[in-house]
Amino acid sequence: MATRRVLVTGCSSGIGLAVAARLAKDELRRFKVVATMRDLGKRGPLEKAAGDSLNKTLEIKELDACCETSIKECINSLPNRRVDVLVNNAGVGMIGPLECQSIDAMKELFDTNFFGLVRLVKEVLPDMKQRQSGHIVVMSSVMGLQGLLFNDVYSASKFAVEGFCESLAVQAMKFNIKTTLVEPGPVVTEFERKMYESAEKMDLSGTDEETARIFRELYLPYSKEIFTSLSQTPEEVAEQTVNVITAKDPPLRHQTNKVYMPMTALKHADPTGQLPLHTFYKMIFKHDRVFSATLGVLRLLQRRAGKK
Ligand SMILES: NC(=O)c1ccc[n+]([C@@H]2O[C@H](COP(=O)([O-])OP(=O)(O)OC[C@H]3O[C@@H](n4cnc5c(N)ncnc54)[C@H](OP(=O)(O)O)[C@@H]3O)[C@@H](O)[C@H]2O)c1
Fold it and tell me: Which residues bind NADP(+) (predicted)?
């Protein structure tokens, strides 16, 4: 099988770093990895993770998903501009009451999470069409399938990603181009740290007392519990992403965390939307103790299984 060139965005940390390093260290040497980041000053952790593969099966290049010129320069620097697999991973998070978030901050988030993807796809798609081959792999989220309290804008950006890919996939298929949305649940990365750091500092004076209380006293502690109980490592997500890339017939969607499947299944079980709506409401506001206890049991089971 010929070596495939895989371009990954957002490789300074987390999932992007893990995907790039895992692909570069592939025992069968099936990939040439172009690991990109917007700030090359942050290349240290990736260089360390890449080890011997650095400058052999992995090269590091600058790419800012919010800048068309930067994307063009990066793609133009590749032999024949060839990208066989695009892993669009760069993304940012945002949590909190809507009233406390500025429209500018929301636009910035969409500029990275949604328009970043659109810019990248616009740049690689014409060449993929011409070659009649390619694979567009997009780091979405379970929040691209099911919205979550206080994640309104982030979730909306991932819904946009899902709608974009679902629409594009049909046209792409005509040109033998595959499309895959990878949908992780919580993953322990810088993403989580940055999100909680900004949440702790958030000025909640823009919202009413009850909303501020729900966010601080209910949502944040729960969300942290969920991260400790149900999260995956970036390496686990990377392993599954590689499986998707090497699959003979890659799926349009791949959820990485089985625990989240019932949550997304609720939506398909009831087209009126009432079932997931009432389930989430009860889980958060009525049966919070049961929910908390369930998370405790899951944590225990994971510890016993030697996972944590
Ligand atoms: N962690 C989770 O729980 C989770 C769950 C589901 C989905 N995801 C998705 O997974 C993806 C990766 O997130 P992560 O968890 O690995 O978070 P992370 O560790 O914070 O990594 C995000 C990466 O995106 C980069 N990035 C941000 N804006 C960029 C831009 N304009 N151009 C290029 N790169 C940019 C960051 O670079 P800098 O270092 O320069 O900021 C960083 O390399 C995101 O799309 C996220 O939405 C994460």
Answer: 10-38, 64, 158
